[in-house]
From TrEMBL:
Cofactor dependence: [4Fe-4S] cluster
Span of domain Radical SAM core: 2-223
CDD domains recorded: Radical_SAM
GO molecular function, one term: 4 iron, 4 sulfur cluster binding
Matching Pfam families: Radical_SAM
Name by which UniProt lists this protein: Radical SAM additional 4Fe4S-binding domain-containing protein
Entries under InterPro entries matching the protein: 4Fe4S-binding_SPASM_dom, Aldolase_TIM, MoaA_NifB_PqqE_Fe-S-bd_CS, rSAM, rSAM_sf, Sulphatase_maturase_rSAM
Gene3D superfamilies in alphabetical order: Aldolase class I (3.20.20.70)
Keywords associated with the record: 4Fe-4S, Iron, Iron-sulfur, Metal-binding, S-adenosyl-L-methionine
Family of this protein: Belongs to the radical SAM superfamily. Anaerobic sulfatase-maturating enzyme family.
Length: 349
């Protein structure tokens, strides 16, 4: 039995370099070098070979430091007629109008990392040259807005900024072209090893404040901004697969490629030999793919006994894995998922 599922999520670490030095960056241990073009192209060809639809995410470091390579890979996808949904998650500082227009015109979804008001952003996401990260990101948002391009926001949540979380609603409305906001609980890897996730109580309290503020701003502006987590609940409520649909690693469908062309089960697990699946040159090792998938499935089994599981889809293994290598539930993540399930059901029952 050597067959394995096709790749449905390909994440390319195009560079380990970054112009920011975020306090919680789980990828801070990645070598500060660039992935070569040959490796990147081979990885895309590997994912596209099945003919199945796959998610292609350009990652880093700061991926826009390699924009010429991104442009090349987009053309590879188009020339080979691959059924790829392309995305980029960026700190926004290098987004020009021309780059934004290229990404939009070629169907690359744009997400910008933002933690809220300027005082929070400048503290949690410092720029290496000492300049303001909030101003740098604001330029990126503005350039997209000038081109009529919308974007999503991803906000990382730690225990020392959770009380400032309502500010993300202000910034989402301030920029004017944000259509979606999602939250990413701290992962205890990289620089995140020195930080902590918020308590379940603090997380729920902060989300209630964010939710109420977003509702108030919607009344004032007439603009509705989606919450990523609530959209997922809606999908599962509508009959989506609730058996860990977001965990491509568990399902043997993931290929997270580091700057050297080594394939791991998840971007948060890069550098951990246990979760190494192969290389772009050799392909994924079927035995290793099944071994890692089975381990993750067993580790996450407590989710199945939770009453919220059908509308939750299960927790995230990389957030349950602590800096000591132990697997334990993320109270903050569970609190967040339960919160959005309750909110969705209140509106739809």
């Amino acid at each position: 039995m050597n067959s394995i599922p096709p790749i449905r999520m390909l994440v390319l670490t195009l560079t380990g370099r970054c112009n920011f030095s975020c306090r919680y960056c789980y990828a801070s241990d990645v070598d500060a070098v660039d992935m070569d073009e040959e490796t990147a192209v081979e990885a895309v060809m590997m994912a596209g070979a099945s003919g199945e639809r796959f998610l292609l995410q350009f990652s880093g470091g700061e991926p826009l430091l390699r924009f010429p390579l991104i442009r090349k890979l987009v053309h590879v996808v188009e020339e080979n007629h691959f059924n790829a949904q392309m995305q980029i998650q960026t700190n926004g500082s290098l987004l020009t109008r021309d780059i934004g227009r290229f990404l939009y015109d070629h169907g690359v979804g744009i997400g910008i990392s933002c933690d809220g008001r300027p005082s929070v952003m400048d503290r949690t996401r410092p720029v290496k040259d000492g300049s303001s990260s909030s101003k740098a990101a604001a330029r990126g948002f503005r350039h997209l807005a000038e081109e009529g391009i919308g974007t999503g926001i991803t906000c990382v949540v730690t225990d020392d900024m959770v009380n400032d979380l309502p500010g993300i609603a202000d910034m989402a409305h301030f920029y004017g072209n944000v259509h979606q906001v999602g939250f990413d609980i701290l992962r205890e890897q990289g620089r995140g090893e020195s930080l902590h996730e918020p308590s379940a109580r603090d997380m729920e309290k902060a989300l209630e404040a964010v939710y109420n503020r977003m509702a108030m701003l919607e009344k004032v502006t007439g603009r509705h901004i989606h919450f990523t987590q609530e959209d997922r609940v809606a999908h599962l409520y509508g009959g989506g697969n609730h058996e860990f649909p977001q965990c491509y690693a568990m399902n043997g469908e993931a290929a997270f490629v580091d700057v050297h062309g080594v394939i791991y089960a998840c971007s948060s697990l890069m550098g951990r030999e246990t979760y190494r699946l192969g290389t772009v040159k050799t392909g994924r090792d079927p035995d290793k793919v099944r071994e890692v998938g089975a381990f993750i499935k067993k580790a996450m089994s407590p989710c199945r006994s939770c009453e919220y599981f059908p509308l939750c889809g299960g927790g995230c293994f990389s957030r349950w894995l602590d800096k000591e290598g132990r697997v334990r539930p993320s109270d903050a993540e569970c609190a967040m998922k339960k919160f959005f399930i309750r909110k969705y059901l209140e509106k739809n029952r």
